[in-house]
Amino acid sequence: MTYQLCVEPLGETIEVEEGQTILDACLRAGVYLPHACGHGLCGTCKIDVLEGEVEHRDASSFALMDFERDEGKTLACVATLAADTVIEADLDDEPDAEHHPVRDYHATVARVERLAGDILGLWLALDDGPLAFQAGQYVMLEVPGIAGPRAFSIASPPSQAGEIELHIRLVPGGKATGWLHENAREGLKLKFAGPYGRFHVRRSANLSKLFLAGGSGLSSPQSMILDLLEKGETGPILLVHGARDAAGLYHADIFRALEEAHANFAYLPVVSGEDASWQGARGFVHEAIERRFGGRFDGQQAYLCGPPPMIDACITTLMRGRLFERQIFHEKFLTPADAAQARSPLFKRI
Amino acid sequence: MTTTTTQSPRAKKLGIKERYSYLTRGLDWEPSYQPREKIFPYTDYEGIRIHDWDKFEDPFRLTMDAYWKFQAEKERRLYAVIDSFAQNNGQMNVTDARYINALKIFLTAVSPLEYAAHRSYAHVGRHFDGVGPRIACQMQAIDELRHAQTQIHTISHFNKFFDGLHDPWHMFSRVWYLSVPKSFFEDAMSAGPFEFLTAISFSFEYVLTSLLFVPFMSGAAYNGDMATVTFGFSAQSDESRHMTLGLEIIKFMLEQDEGNVPIVQKWIDKWFWRGYRLLSIVAMMMDYMLPKKIMSWKEAWEIYFEQGGGALFTDLARYGIRLPKYHEIASAEKDHYSHQAWSTFYQYTHAAAFHTWLPDAGEEAWMREKYPESYDRLYAPRYAHWGAEADEGKRFYNNGLPQLCQVCQVPAFFTEANDPTRISLRTCEHEGEHYHFCSDGCRDIFLDEPEKYVQAWLPVHQIYQGNCGGATVPEVLDWYHLNGGADNLDYKGSPDEALWQSWQASKAGTGT
């Protein structure tokens, strides 16, 4: 038995298992809720129940008092659902977020291209109408014969709603990506659901945009940058794309062309491995930005996409350079193991 | 599990944060006939630079109106439990009267600190040049007063039956070991507002809080003291606000100006070490004074500091903050901390307002299991020796007065981190005077602000200077208002023990 939980003010709906706490379900679905003790004692995770029905479970009578229960409050860290429910949590409102309904889509592979050694480009033509999404969002793709859908960020801009582009990195030992790398060809029928995720450009903040991509993490930034330029963004945009060798810097031609066409866009490719053929910048992404900005990032807004060690190193470099949590964004694909990892409550989103 | 996003069917309304900001807007004002620096004279001199007070996020967004409603309800519930504990003679249902001695330390050492915290938060709340921290401090000031008041009721209850609780406020300013918590808090109170919050809200109430709360609240629960457990729940529901204030103020200082980073680091170093030394008393309570034990000090240190604190400092590293200086010394001491503290109090219990005792056979087995590296080798032989002396009617009391550390005021009984058979003692010269310390940590703190710590009121020095009622132990105890023969000495043979045994006998129906 599962219930639907709608989280306001985000307007995001997730599924909650019977007996699963609201906090656990939210964190696993990538929705951050304020919390601290995790045992119903401190009251940090107090939320309003707007509709539906919850069980308060082990909430302390001091952390959640009788009159609060009567007023429709509960503690997310211990409360479970007894019906489909709508809650309101103390979350920042996101003025730039668009809300697009999630639907199931049928698509046909229109084009397959090897972008780099272990990255395959897939262009999916949508069989039953266009996909409305916000640049930075992802889809859950079903791979024939493999249980459970896999998440892939959309690399094309929302203006190309009839055909979406995905970048599929071959995960070593990965069943789904292995299957796609071997079997994807023009005409293949696939199914997916989407769009998902809250990774999007905060244009209203009016700051310089810094996109940091590692390997196939280029997909979301590509969509976001194309979208921004199409919409006439005039503020500075820098894309730093890191790869182990020059061959991994796929789509360099696209970004060099954009650099020619737009005075406000700059492209900085960087190679971390030993590659004698490479003439450009060397090192990791966080080292490249450290050099480029002299270690100071005030006035920037950073969007990060790539493998976890790269994300971690970049956040550290940005924060040491005085750019803080409210201007750093990255897509989090949380696994249950991540949710269980010991984290301090110092940061909310990063 | 998959997620689905749908268009929200409800009309767009203000978020909780926006509602609060509209509700409270305009409550601060711009002064017109006095310059700001005269109204808020303390916000600059510590060197902390703030550029935009509005960036301080009040994480709780509680209005005063709602605050009163919450606190009134908490009081109602808590006093119902305290009353019922009294009416049902709850004190008779604890595991053993030895437990009450842990409570005596908590009530005489911590309750006055709650009151001191009330005064301090009221003070810094008045002096913050920003409305966010001002409101948070104001509410915490009232919370702390509430905690002090509740604990005074508890003192009053246990004082009806047990010794050592009859004059805690008087004792707090005079008794030697109570100068440890008193001087700790006065050090924080007499600092500037930003250091005070780093000391108490961050270092103590956030970084070290579990090490204080777990022994008291779980200890009380394990040992049948439901009144203290209920107080714990009641206080913990305020504690989330207090801990969050600690985290927010640290983030706020670190993000406002990078010149603040080394200042904050210095304070974290200092207050980690100050707090850690204060917790030596908690370590001995956990390992020796709870008849039914929860976990050892060593285990608590590993879980709550090495693991829990590790995650926090991994995150803080992104601001350029590292683990507190000497954290590795604290970890090296975990096999010895509680044993050395208890051994000291065992020797000086004739001058303390609580009882001590030697661990029994069952407790020694527990010690061996929890401290395989140190207990049998270093501490069991000492207790065996003292036990044999006590059996011969020569219970050991040390009549020499110990050297106190100039900073933490704990007797210099801690050993070198790499050699538990050698006492750790550090010294320095300052303006022709010689000063003594228990550790490099305390010596560093002194050297940074010698003009502050030369003023320390050190109980042993004061006795020698003739300021404590006289030169003999009975005269000093009189000056402490300590009832010799009742409040002090070994638990064995104490009036507390006799009372407890009479209760046990009457429960068993044998009567006395």
TrEMBL record, chain A:
Pfam families: FAD_binding_6 (PF00970), Fer2 (PF00111), NAD_binding_1 (PF00175). Coiled coil: none annotated. GO terms for molecular function: 2 iron, 2 sulfur cluster binding; oxidoreductase activity. Residues 3-93 form the 2Fe-2S ferredoxin-type domain. InterPro entries: 2Fe-2S_ferredoxin-like_sf, 2Fe-2S_ferredoxin-type, 2Fe2S_fd_BS, Beta-grasp_dom_sf, Cbr1-like_FAD-bd_dom, FAD-bd_FR_type, FNR_nucleotide-bd, MRET. Residues 102-202 form the FAD-binding FR-type domain. This is Ferredoxin oxidoreductase. The lineage of its organism: Bacteria, Pseudomonadati, Pseudomonadota, Alphaproteobacteria, Sphingomonadales.
TrEMBL record, chain B:
Residues 428-457 form the YHS domain. GO terms for molecular function: monooxygenase activity. This is Methane/phenol/toluene hydroxylase:YHS. It comes from Novosphingobium nitrogenifigens DSM 19370. The keyword ATP-binding does not apply. Gene3D superfamilies: Ribonucleotide Reductase, subunit A. The keyword rRNA-binding does not apply. It comes from the Bacteria. Keywords: Monooxygenase, Oxidoreductase.
